[in-house]
Amino acid sequence: MALNIEQGSTSHSAYNLRSTFSDVEERHTLAVMVENEPGVLARVIGLFSGRGYNIESLTVAEVDHTGHTSRITIVTTGTPQVIEQIKAQLGRIVPVHEVHDLTVEGRSVERELALFKVEGQGEARVEALRLADIFRASVVDTTLESFIFEITGTSDKVDAFAELMRPLGLTEMARTGVAALSRGSAG
Amino acid sequence: MTQAMTGARMVIQALTDQGVDTVFGYPGGAVLPIYDELFQQSGIKHILVRHEQAAIHAAEGYARSTGRVGVAIVTSGPGATNAVTGLTDALMDSIPILVISGQVPTFLIGTDGFQEADTVGITRPCTKHNWLVKDTDALSRTLHEGFHVARSGRPGPVLIDVPKDVQFATGTYTAPEAIRSRYQPGTKGDPAVIAALAQAIETAERPVLYTGGGVINAGPEASRLLRDLVAKTGIPITSSLMGLGAYPASGERWLGMLGMHGLYEANMAMHGCDLLICVGARFDDRITGRTDAFSPQSIKAHIDIDASSINKVIPVDIPILGDCASVLTDLLEAWEARGSKTDRAAMSRWHAQIDAWRAQDCLRYKGSETVIKPQYALQRLEALTKGQDRYITTEVGQHQMWAAQFLGFEAPNRWMTSGGLGTMGYGFPASIGVQVAHPGATVINVAGEASWLMNMQELGTAAQYRLPVKQFILNNERLGMVRQWQQLLHGERYSQSWSEALPDFVKLAEAFGAKGIQCSDPDKLDEAIQEMLDHDGPVVFDCLVEKHENCFPMIPSGKAHNEMLMGEAATEQAIEAGGAVLV
Ligand SMILES: Cc1cc2nc3c(=O)[nH]c(=O)nc-3n(C[C@H](O)[C@H](O)[C@H](O)COP(=O)(O)OP(=O)(O)OC[C@H]3O[C@@H](n4cnc5c(N)ncnc54)[C@H](O)[C@@H]3O)c2cc1C
Ligand SMILES: Cc1ncc(C[n+]2csc(CCOP(=O)(O)OP(=O)(O)O)c2C)c(N)n1
């Protein structure tokens, strides 16, 4: 039996496919299942700030009340080695039950919800409504000088909508951050 | 299995059920109910330290020398903040300890109450895990879980913050047997990857074992298996500072410590090997030097229980996630099942090469007939304690490195030092913890005068409990390690690296009712050390040594293993711009 070992394998397999020590930055979406106990979010955030990792987006909510489980969805960027470190570091936090890298574990769906306040009159107001329609954003509040639009989609879609609304009188914005699930049946 | 009692009583009950015989601590308002319970029982011995930092280091010394969880109790606010350095030290060195801190009553939390501090917030990044217990019914479960977390997987410090009203209130006590924790880190390595390592051993021409603190963490069985592996394969073995004693210093294949102040033969073997087997070590920057020049020709295997240690700094080819003892068992089995093969011819060439490196005698130093050289003092200490039931602790600095180089450890759990955090002030309280755990043993703290002063108040503790700890101070009247770096890297500008206004150590010892000895004459050194060893009580030994001795070999920060400085003659080469920014 010939020994076939590749440089840069990960902790999970000696025969890994990705070069862990590449210096190309990647964007990964992680789903972290945690025990819903006090301080658990602070632990996760403290890990990122303490070790100098990036957080692009972070959302958290209880998903199983009886099982006391919350789901934290984190979008982060880093080299493959940093991403592997982040997962390993998250995995050793005592109340963390599971860490899933949705970016490598097959296809997933990502959505964000955002609210936009757009103020203006005349042509700009009409244009804002027209674009909202194209983006399937709905109007959830309206006055004679303003709209609040609600939009759901990928972060890219929300970014694009924000770009278009800016010259049309975008004055305030609130975003939920990313929620994500892998496609297909669980497990 | 369950029983009603107060929270304070539960603390004692849980410690008792966990087999705790000793706690280190310091009382205060927020832990008075627990101290009241301690007063009314005799099963658990409480050692009153003189500063909470010392309680934590003593618990670390207790833990490292016994393999059990060390326990400390501190009060709220300043008691808890004083514990922070010790907790960080234990986290960096993977030492299992459990700290119970008092807290203001739950109804005062958040009001800036007297001696209130956000203890779980402050200690979150310096514990493996911590808990604030707000309900007496949850207290016993949390205490048992705390012990479990501290000792399972990669060990580490945990803290349990207990508000005073929770200590007073009555709740239901649950015994440890009734608890099943969700935290169950795996210990068994992947057999396919272990087989790959067994195969790599068969064909390796220049293999090296690089072992570390993880072997000590894994318990004496792991050391036994490691010795077995070395005996059967003939693979030369080196260790980090934290792993000394897992393989005996008198063993045939021992290379000595590796790294920044490691031995020439150990570092050259790391640089030249074709198979590097890391067992329970974490490729610290004191080991790797320049990472891009680290062991350039080798296939690298890494056995570690913590996935975050693997591929953190050095990419490895054969990663094995598991406990050292379990993986070494499987590895030996796999290798033997395949026929116990090694490349004997290549291995004997490798052994010969190592002997040639060893012949460089890298620890050679210039002796003196007039002043005591620190290395000489340690050689004499080694000779005069050889074969004894001996435990060594150290402070941090040059003396620590010389102790690692010149003292030989034959068994695990005999060497307690602050490696990861490098905490000056660790050694004295740690020696107290070790002595409490091993009353009949010879316990020596090899110290520098500056470090020792950082926790010298513990002379009170040593005197009170008649703990015969020996404080062997290599007094160079300098912050020696700092002075060495200033000489080599900062143009000999000795900024603030003198120990001015030192006390008379003999009188200081006597003021506490301990024995003081001073020695400055190499001819009288043996006699003085013997006097220290023979004295049945705490001793402060002020050993006046050469003031400007440097610690060699040395790999300057940012250099590769084969760019080692070997002695005084080589020091000029060290001064180079890039290295100075690293620590
Ligand atoms: C002034 C100074 C100089 C120093 N110079 C040197 C030097 O020259 N050489 C040197 O070696 N060090 C030196 N050190 C110490 C250095 O900083 C590190 O503390 C040390 O190298 C780390 O040792 P380690 O790799 O064995 O890791 P440890 O900190 O002991 O970590 C243990 C590793 O084993 C793993 N582990 C734990 N339990 C288990 C288990 N049951 N099974 C499997 N794996 C487990 C852990 O996950 C971890 O990765 C120096 C320190 C100071 C203060
Ligand atoms: C708490 C703390 N502060 C500062 C340092 C930085 N430091 C490392 S070694 C050293 C000098 C130690 O002097 P001494 O204890 O006399 O030992 P020597 O090096 O002379 O043997 C200092 C200041 C440290 N490691 N720990």
TrEMBL record, chain A:
Functional pathway: Amino-acid biosynthesis; L-isoleucine biosynthesis; L-isoleucine from 2-oxobutanoate: step 1/4; Amino-acid biosynthesis; L-valine biosynthesis; L-valine from pyruvate: step 1/4
InterPro entries assigned to the protein according to its UniProt record, in alphabetical order: Acetalactate_synth_ssu, Acetolactate_synth/TF_NikR_C, Acetolactate_synth_ssu_C, ACT-like_dom_sf, ACT_dom, AHAS_ACT, AHAS_small-like_ACT
Pfam families: ACT_AHAS_ss, ALS_ss_C
GO CC terms: cytosol
Catalytic activity: 2 pyruvate + H(+) = (2S)-2-acetolactate + CO2
Gene Ontology molecular function: any one: acetolactate synthase regulator activity
Gene3D superfamilies hit by this protein: 3.30.70.260, ACT-like. Chain A, domain 2 (3.30.70.1150)
Highest taxon above the source species: Bacteria
UniProt keyword terms in alphabetical order: Amino-acid biosynthesis, Branched-chain amino acid biosynthesis, Transferase
Domain ACT: 29-104
Its EC number(s): 2.2.1.6
GO BP: any one term: isoleucine biosynthetic process
Family designation: Belongs to the acetolactate synthase small subunit family.
Assembly information from the UniProt record: Dimer of large and small chains.
Described purpose of this protein according to its UniProt entry: Catalyzes the conversion of 2 pyruvate molecules into acetolactate in the first common step of the biosynthetic pathway of the branched-amino acids such as leucine, isoleucine, and valine.
Protein name: Acetolactate synthase small subunit
UniProtKB/TrEMBL annotation, chain B:
Record note on cofactor: Binds 1 Mg(2+) ion per subunit.
Superkingdom of the source species: Bacteria
Keyword Metal-binding attached: yes
Keyword Transferase: yes
Keywords from the named record: Amino-acid biosynthesis, Branched-chain amino acid biosynthesis, Magnesium, Metal-binding, Thiamine pyrophosphate, Transferase
Cofactor(s) the protein requires to work: Mg(2+); thiamine diphosphate
Domain Thiamine pyrophosphate enzyme TPP-binding: 396-543
Ranges of residues in domain Thiamine pyrophosphate enzyme N-terminal TPP-binding: 5-120
GO biological process, one term: L-valine biosynthetic process
SUPFAM superfamilies: DHS-like NAD/FAD-binding domain, Thiamin diphosphate-binding fold (THDP-binding)
Pfam families reported in the protein's UniProt record: TPP_enzyme_C (PF02775), TPP_enzyme_M (PF00205), TPP_enzyme_N (PF02776)
UniProt GO cellular component terms: acetolactate synthase complex
Single GO MF annotation: flavin adenine dinucleotide binding
Enzyme class: transferase
UniProt catalytic activity: 2 pyruvate + H(+) = (2S)-2-acetolactate + CO2
EC number: 2.2.1.6
Boundaries of every Thiamine pyrophosphate enzyme central domain copy: 194-331
Pathway: Amino-acid biosynthesis; L-isoleucine biosynthesis; L-isoleucine from 2-oxobutanoate: step 1/4; Amino-acid biosynthesis; L-valine biosynthesis; L-valine from pyruvate: step 1/4
Family: Belongs to the TPP enzyme family.
Designated name of the protein: Acetolactate synthase
Organism annotation: Pseudoroseicyclus aestuarii
